[in-house]
From TrEMBL:
The lineage of its organism: Bacteria, Pseudomonadati, Bacteroidota, Cytophagia, Cytophagales. Its cofactor is Zn(2+). Signal peptide: none annotated. Belongs to the KduI family. SUPFAM superfamilies: RmlC-like cupins. This is 4-deoxy-L-threo-5-hexosulose-uronate ketol-isomerase. CDD domains: cupin_KduI_C, cupin_KduI_N. Keywords: Isomerase, Metal-binding, Zinc.
Length: 279
């Protein structure tokens, strides 16, 4: 057994107002996603998304089912999106091999049984994934940055000049409910997702990477009128419930992966909160 998935329950916003730093981190932060030759993650009851990291180092590892799913195999009733945050590597899906370069994505639909992740000789394979319940079997598809829907937003003057790569979204690849993409901040910019927003129709998870070891990101969450913050490092992820804003500012520029699951596939479905209205 090399797959370890922790269950985390949903949190009422009224309760979260009482959390101290350690409890906020315990409920929402994922600190150690990458463990050698393991698949590690969190099964959150917020839209039942699974968020995790895959780190084959000395051997190939299979995507195993876990107790939370009560399924014969992991993707029996699920879909999964995988984004490579390390060097070029390969993934086998039911006998077909897909090569993923850095920052390329792979969507695997419901029903795929045999998914194998292969190590590099250097042991530096790092794959980040989100998985959501699925009601239909859509085909497996690789999506590179050149295939993505790309939008550049913000400005250096506002410290939020960034390029958004919509990789696994319904305008690029059909999915049941999973949506994933990646945002790269330009040098000199540190703010992501400004203005902040919520969307009651779906939850979201953020994964931060391309961040130097001596740098950090301050991630903001909570209701707009009652915000909280959590300091994060490279290769860490965080859960954002539907009622919570999700935004961050780093001590340098970085890249982050956003993933969503829930009621609405419309990327633009956001309830914007003006910066002057945050408290």
């Amino acid at each position: 057994m090399h797959t370890f998935i922790e269950t985390r329950y949903s949190n009422h916003p009224g309760d979260v107002k009482q959390y101290d730093t350690s409890r906020l981190r315990e409920h929402f932060l994922m600190e150690n996603l990458f463990v050698k030759d393991q698949i590690n993650g969190v099964y959150t009851l917020n839209d039942r998304l699974i968020v995790g990291g895959i780190h084959p180092s000395s051997k190939s590892i299979n995507l195993e089912t876990v107790d939370q799913l009560k399924a014969q195999f992991f993707l029996e009733r699920r879909e999964i999106g995988i984004i490579n945050v390390g060097p070029t590597t390969s993934i086998d899906v039911d006998g077909t091999t897909y090569e993923l370069a850095n920052k390329e994505a792979l969507y695997i639909g419901q029903g795929a049984k045999d998914v194998v992740f292969h190590p590099l000789n250097s042991g530096d394979t790092f794959l980040y994934f989100n998985s959501a319940p699925a009601h239909h079997a859509y085909p497996t598809k690789k999506v590179g940055k050149d295939d993505a829907e790309v939008v550049t937003l913000g400005s250096l003057e506002n410290s939020n000049h960034r390029t958004i790569y919509k990789l696994l979204v319904n305008s690029v690849v059909p999915t049941c409910q999973l949506q994933m993409g990646m945002t790269e901040l330009k040098p000199g910019s540190v703010w992501n997702t400004m203005p902040a927003h919520t969307h009651d129709r779906r939850m979201e998870a953020y994964f931060y990477f391309d961040l130097e070891a001596d740098q950090a990101v301050c991630h903001y969450m909570g209701q707009p009128e009652e915000t909280r913050h959590i300091w994060m490092k490279n290769h860490q992820a965080i859960i954002s419930p539907p009622w919570s804003i999700h935004s961050g500012a780093g001590t340098s520029n970085y890249t982050f992966i956003w993933g969503m699951a829930g009621e609405n596939l419309d990327y633009g479905d956001m309830d914007i909160v003006a910066p002057t209205n945050l408290k």
